[in-house]
Write a structure and sequence with these properties.
Mean pLDDT: 92
Shape: globular
CATH superfamily of the largest domain: NAD(P)-binding Rossmann-like Domain
Number of domains: 2
Strand order of the largest sheet: 3-2-1-4-5-7-10
Distance between the termini: 49 Å
Radius of gyration: 24 Å
Strand content: 15-25%
CATH topology of the largest domain: Rossmann fold
Low-confidence stretches: none
Number of helices: 13
Largest sheet: 7 strands, parallel
Oligomer: single chain
Number of strands: 18
CATH class of the largest domain: Alpha Beta
CATH architecture of the largest domain: 3-Layer(aba) Sandwich
Structural class: alpha/beta
Length: 458
């Protein structure tokens, strides 16, 4: 990477990591901030002063081939009228000041990558959200829409523009350090019901995605900056507790959050099931895509995953790859390959499965009725697809299906990562759960072979 990249908000949590990432890749970096150069700035980085609230300043961006705009007022803290005004003004007017600065250059950069946020979508429950999903209607959604509109005005200057809608960035500093604090006193737990989906991304993947947006000329418009791992708030908090070896059983009631934080509490309680569709389509690889592993790396310095269990199964099927993939990706076949004792029944499924498809089931497990709903989060026919639990008995259920042609047939591999609820108490049931999964896949192995008319599986 040899471009000259100007970065606003360079002294912030993401900005510091980004200028390190760009510098390590050989870019010349112009770091822009309101204050004098902070300690710890890499020696090879050129520091310039730029205050978005002070209006356009073309000289600050002179010589840049790409601009990354990160500056903006933090949304954390109790919202009053003045705080909300600062949030909106810093993003919308600040971005206009950046674009007007670029307008004043005789040689303009080729690309502007502007920060945005998943707040664009508002509170959407279990609705899968891609970059094509509609805008929400609350305060943050309106701010994000104005923020992105200001950035997109750069397109009129012939500048390719990307708006990176990021979720919570997890790293050694930032939001994670605030979430960790209650656990140190044994008071960690979910916010509200804990059922709300929380889009997240490791800050290392986020900075790599910013670099991808700079380098990949095919990327433009909104790009969701979230991991391909759908996590509820309860799962996030249980993962933090597991990494710290602390319980996660002390919920923060919604009414208490509203009393302490006012309107800001609503942003913590809203649910957004966001998928990184355009990043995956562009070939971006997430290096930190599993929440529990990432939290352990960040909080304990180890990739060990307390309470995360993995089940693997494989079988060879003497049939063409396309036929095998079609069979496994057709939800209607699930009933035939599930043990009858489970009374498995599909309640809803699309005729054509694709990324973002949801499938709802009903079953009985050890006599208990269960409602289960899964989402297809990755779809790479005919080689791979991944589904995750949206509702069901587990805190995490991530099922990867892989298909590899081999010796006149297909090697089918299933990998399931799962976490039981209420860790560590839930671990009491792990042995029983493991036996149930093994029994289901023994039945499935034979049923799949028979369904594909290949006789007993090898």
């Amino acid at each position: 990477m040899t471009r000259t990249v100007a970065v606003t908000g360079a002294s912030g949590f993401v900005g510091r990591r980004l200028i390190e990432e760009l510098s390590s890749r050989g870019a010349r970096v112009i770091a822009l901030g309101r204050s004098p150069q902070p300690e710890g700035t890499p020696r090879e980085v050129e520091w310039r002063c730029f205050d978005p609230s002070g209006g356009p300043n073309p000289q600050a961006f002179d010589g840049s081939d790409a601009v990354v705009h990160l500056a903006g007022e933090s949304i954390a803290g109790r919202w009053d009228a003045a705080k909300k005004q600062r949030i909106a003004t810093s993003r919308i007017d600040g971005t206009r000041a950046v674009v007007e600065s670029l307008r004043g250059l005789s040689r303009r950069p080729q690309v502007l990558v502007s920060a945005s946020a998943v707040g664009y979508y508002g509170d959407r429950g279990e609705e899968p959200l891609t970059e094509n999903s509609s805008q929400g209607t609350d305060f943050l959604a309106e701010v994000c829409a104005g923020w992105e509109a200001a950035a997109r005005s750069a397109e009129g200057l012939g500048i390719r523009t990307v708006c990176l809608r990021s979720g919570i960035a997890l790293g050694e500093r930032g939001a994670l350090s605030q979430m960790v604090a209650p656990f140190k006193f044994g008071l960690g737990g979910p916010l509200g019901s804990g059922r709300q989906f929380v889009p997240w991304i490791d800050v290392r993947d986020l900075t790599a995605l910013y670099r991808c947006a700079i380098e990949n000329d095919a990327l433009r418009g909104p790009v969701n900056g979230v991991a391909p791992d759908c996590a509820t708030n309860a799962r996030l908090m249980q993962g933090i507790g597991a990494a710290l070896r602390r319980p996660s059983l002390a919920p923060a009631p919604a009414f208490a959050l509203r009393a302490m934080l006012g309107e800001f509490a609503e942003s913590l309680l809203q649910s957004q099931l966001v998928l990184p569709a355009r990043a995956l389509d562009a070939g971006f690889r997430f290096e930190h895509a599993q929440l529990e592993t990432d939290l352990c790396e960040l909080l304990r310095g180890t990739a060990d995953r307390p309470y995360v269990h993995t089940f693997r199964a494989s079988q060879f099927i003497a049939a063409p790859l396309d036929q095998v993939f079609r069979f496994f990706s057709d939800a209607r076949n699930l009933e035939a390959i599930t043990p009858p004792a489970l009374s498995f029944e599909i309640r809803s499924a699309p005729e054509q499965v694709e990324r973002g498809s949801t499938i709802a089931y009903a079953l009985r497990l050890r006599g208990f009725p269960i409602r289960w709903k899964t989402l297809i989060v990755q779809w790479e026919p005919p080689f791979r697809f991944v589904d995750v639990q949206l509702r069901g008995p587990y805190r995490l259920w991530n099922h990867t299906h892989e298909f590899v042609e081999r010796g006149g047939g297909v090697e089918v591999t299933d990998r399931i990562d799962y976490v039981l609820p209420y860790a560590p108490l839930g671990e009491i049931a792990w042995g029983m759960v493991r036996r149930d999964i093994e029994s289901i896949f023994r039945f499935r192995r034979t049923a799949v072979a028979q369904a594909l008319e290949q006789g007993p599986a090898s």
